[in-house]
Amino acid sequence: MNKQVLLILTLLIGFSSFAQDGRIDFTAEEQKWIDAHPVVYHGYDPEWKPIGFVDDNGKYAGISADYLNLIGPRIGIEFKPYEGIESWSHSLELLHNGDILFLPALAQNEDRNKFLDFTDTYSSYSFVIVSLKDGNFIGGMEDLDTKKVVTPENYFITGLLE
After folding, report:
1. How far is 53 from 44, CA to CA, in rounded Å?
2. Percent of the chain at pLDDT above 90?
3. DSSP labels, 15-62
4. Of all helices (H) and strands (E), which one includes residue 66?
5. Mind listing the pLDDT tens digit for each residue in 100-120?
6. Residue 96: which of 111, 78, 86 has the closest Cα?
7. What are phi and psi of 158, to 5 degrees?
8. What is the CATH number of domain 2-119?
9. Domain residue extents for the chain
10. Residue of 39, 29, 95, 27 lying closest to 72 (CA atoms)
């Protein structure tokens, strides 16, 4: 599975090899894999706005969805969000089980390196600290030393904070 995941992630950043017709040129081995997998299921976080989320109509949307919608036709793969994902942890479980082949916009960390192959970063996002308006000002990580912090389970930033 790691080879397949690596291929898919490589395809997601392969913009430099577009052919004249807008498609990407592939090796014979890559094209054989694509031909055998015209539909590829991926996971997502249903609540990670604006990166990837489930909208009010129950449709996968966001920046990652836009990337996949642009890239899919050019490489000959239909990227489909796996139905019924309840949480980010659920997506990670599906990935571990092989029910999905990749997670768009997945940040790399030591634990994930144990079971996934990663490409070079193709996009980066900043994290922010959100607090109550009438609370104490938090200007950086050092201001959290004595505070209780709530983060989503299995998020990249959660691991950094821990």
Report:
1. 7
2. 41
3. GGGB-TTSPBP--HHHHHHHHH-SEEEE---TEETTTEEE-TTS-EES
4. helix 63-75
5. 999 988 888 888 888 888 878
6. 111
7. -60, -45
8. 3.40.190.10
9. 2-119, 126-162
10. 39
